[in-house]
Design a protein that fits this description.
Shape: globular
Helix content: 25-40%
Distance between the termini: 66 Å
Bound molecules: zinc ion
Strand content: 15-25%
Radius of gyration: 22 Å
Number of helices: 11
Oligomer: single chain
Structural class: alpha/beta
Largest sheet: 7 strands, mixed
Order of helices and strands: HHHEEEHEHEHEEEEEHEHHHEHEE
CATH architecture of the largest domain: 4-Layer Sandwich
């Protein structure tokens, strides 16, 4: 009797977990609990189809598609923190994965099980906080290769922390669901450290059948090392700035790029926020707001850099300060457009940028 109860309880748990994996909240609300089997089936089917269709589009080889997974910064907001997905030649490469990145990937139906590599720009937590969840969820949802995690020196230490924190969790999953469903050999990730060239020249860190990722040192002092990345395929170039000032290496590496995904800070507003906090006696916050202005790029400088480098399209991410969606274009786009005459996109979580291939 007790055995049967445990069996039912275990099945119920699996059903609930599967439900959580596949049912969007809106579907649950529409269904008005308790759910009938037909409602569950219809919702699972709809979600499956949405995921398949998204994967089909993103993994198609006729374009490079960049998805802004997270466009926030360390300052609290409703955006996920820094994370950018690049789909190129059927590959899913992820650049940074701050807090909220895995939830955003799920909400956007990105094919997390097919992720091949993560590239970290530096080791501020708003760029790697979700690494453990990315590794774990991609494995649970079908990843059948060890996930490669690239980064400058320090990446092995960061990854080792996540590997240790998730060791018990992964053991439970394999023990419960079996090696066939949760193969332990693919549960983890492997660090791929590299040494950036400090002069700002790029170094190739990934080269797979014509898809090349190069890293270049940027200036995010006192954070060191810190890099940006350049993805090259089929004569097209996507540059991801990481966190940096308007450094010469970013300008050089962005020359004629089809797309520059760049962090953006509205320095004048941050300075006003600093002064307001000083007046209110919030000394620690004022101090932080003062300090962060020295290692990010102001929107006007970014516009000038993009114009000088003849960047074809500019996408703004890592938006500081966080402002409501409706205000962001005014705050960020206008000062960029004064200097840069190409297309500027103020990023939202989920913004897609498509670069057709010849
Ligand atoms: Zn940073
Ligand atoms: Zn950051």
């Amino acid at each position: 009797m007790r055995h049967r109860y445990l069996l039912i309880s275990s099945r119920l748990k699996i059903a609930l977990i599967l439900g959580a994996l596949v049912l969007p909240t809106s579907a649950l609300l529409r269904a008005q609990l308790p759910l009938g089997a037909d409602v569950v089936l219809a919702n699972v089917k709809a979600r499956n189809e949405a995921r398949k269709e998204t994967a089909r589009k993103l993994l198609a080889k006729d374009a490079i598609t960049v998805v802004l997974v997270g466009t926030g910064s360390p300052l609290p907001s409703d955006r996920a923190q820094a994370s950018t997905a690049v789909f190129v030649d059927g590959r899913f490469l992820l650049f940074d994965c701050g807090d909220g990145a895995s939830r955003s990937i799920d909400a956007l139906n990105l094919p997390i099980g097919q992720i091949e590599a993560v590239f970290l720009t530096h080791f501020h937590s708003d760029h790697f906080a979700d690494l453990g969840e990315i590794i774990d969820r991609s494995w649970i949802q079908g990843r059948r290769q060890v996930l490669a995690v690239y980064g400058p020196s320090g990446v092995a230490e960061v990854l080792d922390g996540f590997q240790r924190a998730y060791r018990l969790e992964r053991g439970y999953r394999t023990a419960h669901h079996g090696e066939k469903v949760m193969p332990s050999e693919f549960a983890g990730a492997a660090a791929k450290p590299f040494a950036p060239d400090e002069s700002g020249e790029s170094v190739t860190v990934y080269d797979q059948q014509g898809v090349v990722v190069k890293a270049f040192a940027v200036n995010h002092a006192p954070v060191h090392p810190a890099v940006g990345y350049r993805v090259e395929f089929g004569g097209k170039v996507v540059v991801i700035s990481g966190d940096t000032t308007a450094t010469a290496s970013l300008a050089t590496q962005s020359r004629d790029a089809d797309l520059l995904v760049a962090e953006a800070m509205k320095m004048a507003t941050v300075s006003q926020m600093q002064k307001a906090n000083e007046q209110l006696g919030n000394d620690a916050i004022a101090h932080i707001l003062h300090d962060i202005q020295s290692y990010h790029i102001d929107v006007e400088q970014l516009g000038a850099l993009a114009e000088e480098a003849k960047v074809k399209r500019l996408a703004l991410t890592h938006l500081v300060p966080p402002v409501p969606k409706a205000v962001a274009p005014l705050l960020f786009k206008r000062p960029v457009s004064e200097k840069y005459h190409g297309e500027t996109v103020v990023g939202e979580d989920g913004t897609r940028l498509v670069i057709p291939l010849p």
